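Entry 12.
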Amino acid sequence: MKKLSYETLKEQNYSGYLLEDAPERVLQFGEGNFLRAFVDYFIDVMNEKAGFNSKVVLCQPIRSGLSDMINEQEGLYTLFLRGFQDGQEVNKKRVISCVSRCLNPYSNFEAVLECASNPDLRFITCNTTEAGIAYDPSCQFTDTPANSYPGKLTQFLYRRFQKFGQEEGKGFIVLSCELIDDNGKELEKCVLKYAEQWNLGEDFIAWIKKENTFCSTLVDRIVTGYPRNEADAICEELGYKDNLIDTGEIFGFWVIEGPQSIKDEFPVDKAELPILITDNHKPYKQRKVRILNGAHTSFVLGAYLAGQDIVRDCMHDDVICGFMNKTIYDEIIPTLNLPKEELLDFASAVTERFKNPFIDHALLAISLNSTSKWKARVMPSLKEYIKRQGSLPACITASFAFYIAFFNGHTLTEDGLVASRKGNDYTVKDDKNVLEFYLAHKDDSVEDLVHAVCTNTDFWGEDLTALEGFEAAVCNYLTQIREKGTYEVMKSLL
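Predicted 3D structure (C-alpha cells):
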C-alpha cells in the first residue's frame, strides 16, 4: 500500500480540498496530536474558505518527535472528527494539507532560525504542554538550541529582530495554547527574562514589546490521537498508508485574547470557525472549568460507585444524567457571569460531548487527583452559589460526599489507595499526602471523617466547616451513601 503523499492522492483522483503550495506564514512549536487536530485543522479550513493561503512549518519541541514521519508524508495526514452534533452522530474525514514540513531543532537548529528571515512569516503557535512555558536560568544564548521552549523562542525572535528590527509589522502574533493560566502573558514574561539574562539589549526588549502580540488563549477539544486499534482498517478503507492519522471530537472552540485587528490577518469569521477574538478570555475559561470540568468532577465519583465505568454510559442513565444536568443548570450556571444563552448553549454541547460514541472516557481516569480537581473546578461554584442564593447547592454538596466515599480505602500500595466497589477493588490515585490522610481516617465514624476532611486546610486552602450547614449536610449524604448507595442519593435529588 502506498504511503500518503500528494502523488498518491492524485492517483486516487482525490476530490477534497488540498493546498500544495503557499507561503509559510505560520511557525508552530509542537507537532503532536492536539495541535494537528485543532490549530492546523482551523488553518486548513481558513485556507479553503477564507483564502488564508498559508503553510505551517512545524518545529518539534523535544528531542524525540514526529519530524521524520511528517516529512515522509509531505506534511499530509488524515483527520477524523467524530461525535454528536445537534443530536446526530457525525464522523467527518479531512486530509489536512496546510503543513509544509517539520524541523528538528536538535539536529538542525539553524534551519529553524532561517525561518526568521522569511518576510511572509507572521504567526507563531505553540503547545509545548503545561511544563513547556517555564524559565530555565541554565539556558544560554549560545545553546543550539536552548533547552526550554521560551529560550528557543527568544533565540528565534532575536534572529528576526536582527533581520527586520527596523521595519514595522515584522513582529509576530503569538498564539499560545498551553493549558496554564494566562499562557501568552507567561510566555512573554519568560522571553523578556531571557532577553535580559542574555544581555540582548534594550532595543530588542523594546521591539519584543512593541512589534509582537503575545495572546493568551483557551483551547477546547478532546483529541484522541492515533487510533491504534483501528488504524489498519482505516488505511485499508482510505487506500493509502497514513502513519499520522489523527482523531478528535467534533466540538472545537478557541478563544484568543487580543485586539480585534487580528481578524484582519487571521480570517476566522470569514471561514465561519468557532474561534472568538476577545479582550478577555477569562470568562470563557471559567465557563469551561466550571461547567465541563466541574460536571465531570461532581458526578463521576458517585457514578463510579454506582457501578458505571465510562462517561458515555452515564449519559444513557436517566438518574446519573439527570443528576449531572441538575448540577449544571440549577447550581453551576447561576454562578457564572456570561450571557445566559451562551452558557446554556455550552452546557447543551457538554452533554453531547459526553455521549460521544467514539470516546471511551473511563471514570477512573477522570478520578485522578480528584482532591485538587474538586477544589479548582467545583468549590468556586459551591461558594458563589451560597453567596448568591443564601443556601447550599444540594447536588454539589452531595458530590463532596461522593468524593469522600470514593476515597474510603483500606490499603496503601505503590500504585495508590485500594478501595472497594461492590466487593471489587479499585485504586484511588492522588497526591501521597491525600492518600495517607484517608488511610489514617479509614475507620472513622461518618461525623469524624467529614469533620476531618472539611477542616483539612491543606486540601482546600480554608476550613469548609465555616460554610453554614455544609458539614452537617455532607454528613447526612455520606450516611445515606453508606446505607443506600450513591445511585439512590442521586435519585433523591431529582
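Annotation: The first strand starts at residue 24 and ends at 29. The domain at 283-492 is CATH 1.10.1040.10 (N-(1-d-carboxylethyl)-l-norvaline Dehydrogenase; domain 2).
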